[in-house]
Amino acid sequence: MKRLTTFERPAVLVALTVLSGLIMLLAAQEVLASGGGGVSTQKFWDFVWRAWNFLVLFIALFLLLRKPAAKFFAGRRANIAETLSDLERKKAQAEDRYREMEAKLADLAGEREKILAEYVKAGEEERDRIIAHAREMAERIKKQAEVTIAQEINSAKAALRKEVAASAAALAEDLIKQKMTDQDQDRLVEEYISKVVPN
Fold this sequence. Notes:
- This protein has helices at residues 10-34, 41-179, 182-196.
- By secondary structure, it is an all-alpha fold.
- Helix 1 crosses helix 2 (41-179).
């Protein structure tokens, strides 16, 4: 069962206020009476009237302000509870973030080694790729040089053949000129004419 607050029990509070006011009045009357009769009855009733006015004003204010004050304090209590809940949530989030950062810091050395290993591996792969490309280019250059050399050899052989043929022809011509007589020349002319002009 829910426990009632002071603002939810006005009758009890009013009764306690009236009772405390009566006790105060009785105590004041006893004090005045024991004072040797120096205080007049008029002053006593003036005091009672003022106390009664205060009591009535207090009860009226209590009854008028009870609900707004209850709402204010309930709202304030809810606001404080919500603020505390929000602060607890933020504190839990901050603790989670702190633990996450601690874990990241702990893993930082391992992460650094991992990154270095990745860079070394990437460098080795790039080196191997460059070497493979250089070998491929060297092979192409070698093949192209072989083709060029073969072409040059063939060209040199052809030039040498032409030169040898020309030298052989010149040498044969010289030999023929040296050994040919006038009779050989006449015979060659006659053979040529007989071949060109038919009988």
